[in-house]
Amino acid sequence: MARKGYPGGMTATPTPPPANPAAPPLPGAADDWLRLDQQICFTLNAASRAFNGVYRVVLKDLGLTYPQYLVMLVLWEHGALPVKKLGEQLRLDSGTLSPLLKRLEAAGLVRRERSARDERSVEVRPTEEGTALRRRALAVPRRIVAATGFEIDEIRDLGARLHQLTTALDKAADGA
Amino acid sequence: MARKGYPGGMTATPTPPPANPAAPPLPGAADDWLRLDQQICFTLNAASRAFNGVYRVVLKDLGLTYPQYLVMLVLWEHGALPVKKLGEQLRLDSGTLSPLLKRLEAAGLVRRERSARDERSVEVRPTEEGTALRRRALAVPRRIVAATGFEIDEIRDLGARLHQLTTALDKAADGA
DNA sequence: GGCCATTTGGTTGTGCGCAATTGAATTGTG
DNA sequence: CACAATTCAATTGCGCACAACCAAATGGCC
């Protein structure tokens, strides 16, 4: 196998529980919890990968991967940033960013240079070419939104909810 | 850097547009689209990783990673499955599953054996130990749900929406 | 039986995500 | 100034995700 399509028609949710509100096998039953868990954790994971897949297709023209695109979005917005700030914005650490930024530099989209004020810090700034790429990137969002089949407001709402979720999860992960 | 916490307090959404419904700077403005794009694609990505982080913590006791847990969930539900079916359920291909299943086998949680009926197919079935692990896994969902800070219904609703999203995105990725 | 397309897993290569370590630069303190 | 603690980036190691390619088994067809 190892092919892109999911021929069988891809269930995306293994046996989605019919959500029969009338006769659930006891709401507190552990089996039920486990199935709900399967539902939600799997679903979010799948949605993320599906999104990734669409971006992969759309971004191929720009020669960017999805995370690289995220980095460029931040750089287009802020101009130039130290790796540290970039990591805070994107919620990524140096282990992920260092090689990624090297690839962007190899592609000629970005330059990395030690800050003069603080030799520990590395400033990342888009090159001429990197800045120019923004024009072509303007076509991306529409295609993505179209692919979702959602209305703008729905997307915004979903985004807000996910943001809220992320905040709660981060707090829980730190606390535990 | 390269540490787990995000000391600076983690913005998670770079400059979240105030979502001011009264005076948006022209709804069709390209900049706006790009920022919305940044919002949604980043947010989903971040939520997925945050989820992953919480599962990482919770699953450490069981010695499972998040994707391995997903595999075990399916196996607990269905008993034994060929790799192909597993891939359909989980939306993963052999390139991901083969090494993952080997690790689960090395951990003694799973056995893989060629089907007698069809020598191409490999049946994956939980071992005694793998089946036993289910009891301990029953504690997981509650902790996850608690970490989200969401009500069950909210989670269900979010799940449904994400499922819908995934379906649309898959269709778009195939079509494009 | 012989041939060929299809199905099924596996392997390789590239890139992301994160924990842990290292090393240099900076800051704080006596 | 000397010395310890902190900050920042890079590196290493492991696991996941996916494309591309491969070999074996199967099934239809003549």
Overall shape of chain A: it is globular
Number of helices of chain A: 7
> Distance between termini of chain A?
40 Å
Largest sheet of chain A: 3 strands, antiparallel
Rg of chain A over CA atoms, rounded to whole Å, is: 21 Å
So, the CATH homologous superfamily of the domain at 62-134 in chain A?
Answer: Winged helix-like DNA-binding domain superfamily/Winged helix DNA-binding domain
In round numbers, the mean pLDDT of chain A is: 82
Reading side by side through the largest sheet of chain A, how are the strands ordered? 1-3-2
Number of strands of chain A: 3
Oligomerization state of this entry? homodimer
CATH architecture call of the domain at 62-134 in chain A:
Orthogonal Bundle
Please provide the ordered H/E string of secondary-structure elements of chain A: HHEHHEEHHH
Low-confidence stretches of chain A: 1-25
Helical residue percent band of chain A: 55-70%
CATH topology (fold) name of the domain at 62-134 in chain A: Arc Repressor Mutant, subunit A
Largest interface: A-B, 89 and 88 residues
Instruction: Please state roughly what percent of the residues of chain A sit in beta strands, choosing from under 5%, 5-15%, 15-25%, 25-35%, 35-45% or over 45%.
Output: 5-15%
